[in-house]
Each structure stands twice: as C-alpha cells, then as structure tokens.
Amino acid sequence: MSNSVDQVNSVEKVEIPTPSAGSGQALSVQKTDGQGRGTLSVPFDPAFTPGAVNAVRVCLRVQPEEQVCVITDEATVELAAAIVSELEKLGAPYHAWVLEELATRPLTDLPREIVDDLEKSQVSIFAVQAQTNELRSRIQMTDVVNRKKIRHAHMVNINQQIMLEGMRADFARVDRLSQKVIEMVRKASKIQANTAAGTDLTADLNPNYKWLKTSGIISPEKWGNLPGGEIFTTPGEVNGTFVIDGVVGDYLCAKFGNLQENPLTVRIKGNRLTEAHSENRELESDFWKYTHTDENSDRVGEFAIGTNIDLKDVIGEILQDEKYPGVHIAFGNPYGAHTGADWDSTTHIDVVGRKFNIWVDDEQIMREGKFLVTA
Predict the structure, then answer these.
(1) What is the β-pairing status of strands 123-127 and 68-72?
(2) Which residue among 85, 92, 140, 169 has the highest number of C-beta atoms inside a 10 angstrom radius?
(3) Domain boundary assignment for the chain
(4) Which residues, in sequence order, are CB contacts of 319 under 8 Å at separation 6+?
(5) What residue ranges in 99-226 does DSSP mark as E strands?
(6) In order along the chain (375 residues), what is the average pLDDT of each group of 10 residues?
C-alpha cells in the first residue's frame, strides 16, 4: 500500500450536535426485512447522535450520491439506527442488514446478500457484537472491502459507552498526532516500551513492512476501526515481556473484560509467544488455546501505538481500548495485504496494557502513558 493511506492531514471541522439533556425523545429508522429497508421502527437515544455524526460526516465523509452498506445485529441495532439516521439526513442511499435475519450465528460464512451489496457499495459500516469463531466471515467481508477499496468502518463490539466516549473524539486532532508519530516510526529501526507493571518489550522493525495510520479518518486504501486512533505495522521481531493489564481482544474481551486486577503476563521470543501466565487460570487457558489455533496464531503480527488522546483510561472493550495511548500488539494475522507481510493466520487477537514509556530509536515519545509529542 502506498502512503496515500495518510492522505488526510487536515480535516474539515464538522459541528457535532449536543442533544438537549433529558429530552428523552426517541428517533427511529427502519429495520431491514432481509431485502433492504423494512417496516419495523427502531428507536434510539438521541445522545448517540454526536457519535453517529462523527462516523458518517467526519470519519467516513459520506457523500449524498454514495451507496452505503450497513451491517448490524440484534444486539447493536439501536446504535446502527443512530448511524442510519445520519445517512438519511444526508440523503445517501443505503441497505441496512441485521445478521440474525439472514443466517444463524455464529456465522460460518458472510451471507450472500451482504457480499452482493458490498460489491455495489462505496462505503460500509460493520456494527456488531463479536461471537466465537466468526473471524472467517469477517475476513470474507474485508476481502471484498480491500478489493473494491470501500471506505469501511469496522465497529466490532461497539456499545453505548463507546458511542458516548470514543466516538465523540476530536478525530482531526487525533489524525494530526498520528501523522507526527508515524513519520517518526517510519524512519526508525527499533521501538522499546516498558511499564511500571513489568512490561519490557523491544520491537526490531522490518523496513520492508509498511506502517499504517488508522486515526479515525478512513480512506479507500485502508479500512479502519471506529473509534479510530492508532498506527501499526507488522514487526520484524519482538522480544520481551508484556504485562496485559488492559484487555485481550476478539471474543475473549467480552468474557474477561478489564484485566487490571488480574493481568495476563506473556513472554515473547523471536516473535513467538513462549509463555502465558495469570492467576485467572481460565483466562490463561483460553488465551493459550486461541493463540495455538494454527501455525502462526502465536506469532506477533501487529505492533501498534494507540493515538486517541481523548481516551482517559481502559474500559474493558477492545474496540476502544486498542486506541488508548500506549503500545499494543496482536498475535496472528498480520494484515499482510496492507503491511506487506508474506505470512498469514486465521486468527488475530490484540493485547493492551497501561501507562507506557516508549522510545523510538533513542527518542522518548511517551512517559507513563502521556505523549511527549504534541498534536
């Protein structure tokens, strides 16, 4: 991928509405009947409107003539309704799909109706709750997104708290900081990170692998998670100890939540997971099993720095927490279509810590979780 992923260095200011306190007025959109729009009204809290405006107008910059594919599920339909309401105000044509109306979950494959709709769309939004063993269907979706260069917002496990916090971030400011940091790391050969909790990591960088910016401003070149705020690459080699006192990703996040009281400590040698220990034996066992699904599930596929400076703490939700300022890594799939990594995995699990000190080569850019670089 070319550096055009960083094409947005200045973002037009969009006025984000503030709902009147205690209005209690429910807005509504139409829930799908499996053929697009249907007849069942879905009310939503108007407090979700600022986050929905950010998603549609700031992060995705949807144009009135663009076709939008909205994918949601029964658990997330209220938040999707807030986003659809903004699409309707804009006048953009869309189809909204509720997964349970199309297939049994957990999904084994992405429903054909959604695949066909994606093929015709310029923008897509995926706002669902993750279920066990659904990564295959999500990869099928992002394969279409990558091939068609769709501006895609990935909102797995979005919830009310994230809609009211992370989705209200100043993404223009986050983008400016992300740009400054990515310019530094692209010139570096090594990143070191440690925490008072015991993390001590060194990442040797491979100059053949690309750094990507997913600051919340989404381009056709690289789909992004919302809320946004990270830069990442596939590392050359990671060695050391990571004390995961934040969260672990995928469906284990919902099961174990915030790990501050019972962290998981992992050791990495030659870019491979070699040990995992926690007083929570179930967490230790589930994580070890997940990271040994295939031959590369235990391999560090992602090295990332969270850049969403509007986030104040880890909340136990990976979608938002991986954007929390600091280092996070992921075992498994390296997103090689974007980074240039020449290996693959069927799994991908992020791990997040707290209050990092970070050095890019010999220059410190973060102290105890606070950036020393200004936006």
Answers:
(1) parallel
(2) 169
(3) 3-166, 169-371
(4) 155, 156, 157, 158, 162, 166, 225, 226, 227
(5) 123-127, 151-154, 190-194, 200-204, 212-214, 224-225
(6) 34 50 40 45 91 98 97 96 95 95 96 97 96 92 97 95 96 96 98 98 97 95 93 98 97 94 98 98 98 98 98 93 97 95 96 98 98 93
